[in-house]
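Q: What residues go here?
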């Protein structure tokens, strides 16, 4: 099935969960076109860079602006970062420069020049002694944070049209990882600046995150899945498959302070949380659909695992996770049935649980690729849905097989029994083992 067609299906059939069930918005500041965020580790300030080159420092308690400067850069600010001691802020911009600011007064301490293209990411090292900057000029530069002198310039892949999206220091400061388009993903030693590993990630990795203990690194991007790698060898040790309602790509990743939860920020107004205690078998916990056009950055707030800050096209917000009540996986739905004609298919089932977060509906078509794919996510208490056949590429003579399962943050229920629907020009019938039936359970 063509990828563009699949996206259309997702857009038409995805139904958002109620965000109030999972998150409470503590505050929201409608800043114009926020583009990057960072929070101070002691949890009292948030720094925001915007599309117009401005920097603002916010109070973490209520989102009010404590200090701001317009035209800090002559172009969009792509990244901001507090120094570990909270005294400095570093920013990187579309104007090719890196700047260091006094965090209290927002006065310029120094500007670091040398990049010849946009600086897409900047970060202080964990001990605050170094700054790293990543640019589309295919260089990763390590700077002395106190003097502004260049310590090392690492030349990355220099292929035509290269863009670089994310850099991350390991928690011990001995490694740095970078990600860019054309499937570029490298982990470098900051002891001898050698390339340690090139983990495999298909397409364009756009976001990286080290686990707090430094043993793992997660990567994600334009294939909409998440890969989890051994940070020392680069070998793949687990991952999260593509969610069906992701249509833009994954823009940010962040581990909780205990390393058990991974926050996945997507560009189409969604962020999700997964339990990655066992990277080989991540468990979906919850999602926040939001009300915005897109998210640009999401991360856990300070050392908390129950608070999230996020920048979107309409501002910056702090959200608090509400406790999850479910303590067991839901029961499987039953008596899946269908009524269909040449234009639409109505599915229905019996909901046998009272603890589901929602339902996942899957199908396969015998004339297309005959593989299962998830085409709809429905809210809790759903007992059916109506499908427009054309949206799923269902045509006369096709046989579609459907199944549904419930889920919550503890995991997934078993599937319902499968239901086969054969489509003809005048009618559609469900059948199994050669017998024509309306309901199969």
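A:
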């Amino acid at each position: 099935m063509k990828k563009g067609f699949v996206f259309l299906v997702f857009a038409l059939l995805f139904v958002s969960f109620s965000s109030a069930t999972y998150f409470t918005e503590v505050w929201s500041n409608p800043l114009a076109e926020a583009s990057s965020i960072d929070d101070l580790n002691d949890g009292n300030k948030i720094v925001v860079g915007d599309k117009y080159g401005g920097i603002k420092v916010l109070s973490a308690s209520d989102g009010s602006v404590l200090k701001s400067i317009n035209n800090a850069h002559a172009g969009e600010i792509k990244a901001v970062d507090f120094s570990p001691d909270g005294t400095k802020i570093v920013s990187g911009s579309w104007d090719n420069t890196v700047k260091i600011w006094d965090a209290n007064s927002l006065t310029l301490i120094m500007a670091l020049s040398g990049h010849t293209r946009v600086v897409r990411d900047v970060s202080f090292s964990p001990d605050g002694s170094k700054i790293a900057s990543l640019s589309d000029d295919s260089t990763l530069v390590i700077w002395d944070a106190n003097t502004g002198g260049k310590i090392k310039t690492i030349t990355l892949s220099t292929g035509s049209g290269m863009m670089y999206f994310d850099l991350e220091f390991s928690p011990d400061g001995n490694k740095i990882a970078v990600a860019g388009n054309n499937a570029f993903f490298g982990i470098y030693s900051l002891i001898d600046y050698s390339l340690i590993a090139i983990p495999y990630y298909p397409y364009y990795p756009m976001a990286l995150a080290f686990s707090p203990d430094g043993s793992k690194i997660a990567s994600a991007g334009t294939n909409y899945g998440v890969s989890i790698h051994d940070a020392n060898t680069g070998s793949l040790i687990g991952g999260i498959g593509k969610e069906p309602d992701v249509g833009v790509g994954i823009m940010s990743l962040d581990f909780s302070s205990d390393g058990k939860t991974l926050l996945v920020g997507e560009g189409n107004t969604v962020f999700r949380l997964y339990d990655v205690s066992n990277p080989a078998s991540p468990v979906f916990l919850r999602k926040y659909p939001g009300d915005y056009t897109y998210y640009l950055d999401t991360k856990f707030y300070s050392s908390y695992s129950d608070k999230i800050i996020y920048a979107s096209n309409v501002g910056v917000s702090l959200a608090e996770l509400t406790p999850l009540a479910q303590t067991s996986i839901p029961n499987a739905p039953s008596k899946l049935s269908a009524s269909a004609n040449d234009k639409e298919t109505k599915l229905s089932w019996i909901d046998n649980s009272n603890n589901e977060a929602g339902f996942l509906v899957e199908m396969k078509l015998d004339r297309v690729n005959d593989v299962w794919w998830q085409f709809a996510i429905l809210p809790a208490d759903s007992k059916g849905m109506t499908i427009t056949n054309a949206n799923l590429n269902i045509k006369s003579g096709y046989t579609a097989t459907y199944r549904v399962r419930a889920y919550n943050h503890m995991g997934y229920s078993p599937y319902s029994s499968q239901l086969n629907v054969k489509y003809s020009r005048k009618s559609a019938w469900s059948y199994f083992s050669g017998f024509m039936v309306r309901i199969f359970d």
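A: Context that may help when evaluating the design: The helical segments are 3-13. The longest helix spans residues 3-13.
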